[in-house]
Amino acid sequence: MAENQAAPQFALQRVFLKDVSLETPEGSSVFTKGWKPDVKLDLNSKTSRLDDNHYEVVLTLTVTIKNDGATALLIELQQAGIFLISGLEDQQLGHTLGAFCPSILFPYAREAVDSFMTRASFPPLMLAPVNFDALYAQQLQQKAEQQKATEDKPAAEETH
């Protein structure tokens, strides 16, 4: 039986910038003020199955930089990758797509954000590393709590 089971496979096929947007809502007036940035990073990832063994993972970063309370710069970036993955059980596949693949894509996205910052004439910005394993575990916990709340709600209504 073990002979028929294929060995797990994982390979990064391609990394690409799927979408990017850079805005300076204050225009050139942002360059006339002192620079004390307040940086906010929002992360999200999405997975699409392309065929039996290929998946597209898209890591979306939204970097909002405020200066003196006003939005000085907004960068929205989608860093994507195509991954060959086979031979994994559902739980392993979920972790690979939800944590491991985004962790591979993040350095590319981080470099792109830094590059766009300097091209827009702002100081360089090197985003701090992200623990995607912890984010994935947190996401699983939230889903479990939501599912439990949904299951408990009808039972609570029946007891009244």
List keywords for this structure.
160 residues, alpha+beta, Bacterial Protein-export protein SecB, four-stranded antiparallel β-sheet, 37% strand, transport, unfolded protein binding
Task: Describe, in short, the structure shown.
With 160 residues, the chain is of the alpha+beta class. It contains two helices and four strands.
The level-1 CATH class: Alpha Beta
Proportion in helices: 25-40%
Broad structural category:
alpha+beta
Range of strand content: 35-45%
* CATH topology title: Bacterial Protein-export protein SecB
Q: Count up the helices.
A: 2
Taking pLDDT < 50 over at least 5 consecutive residues as the criterion, the unreliable ranges are none
Mean pLDDT: 91
Give the beta-strand count. 4
Rg on CA atoms, Å: 21 Å
Give, in order, the helices and strands: EEEEHH
Assign the CATH superfamily.
SecB-like
CATH architectural group: Roll
Enumerate the strands of the largest sheet in spatial order, edge to edge or round the barrel.
Answer: 1-4-3-2
Major sheet details: 4 strands, antiparallel
Q: What's the number of domains?
A: 1
Shape: globular
Taking the alpha carbons of the first and last residues, their distance comes to 52 Å
Keywords: Chaperone, Cytoplasm, Protein transport, Translocation, Transport
Family: Belongs to the SecB family.
Protein name: Protein-export protein SecB
Subcellular location: Cytoplasm
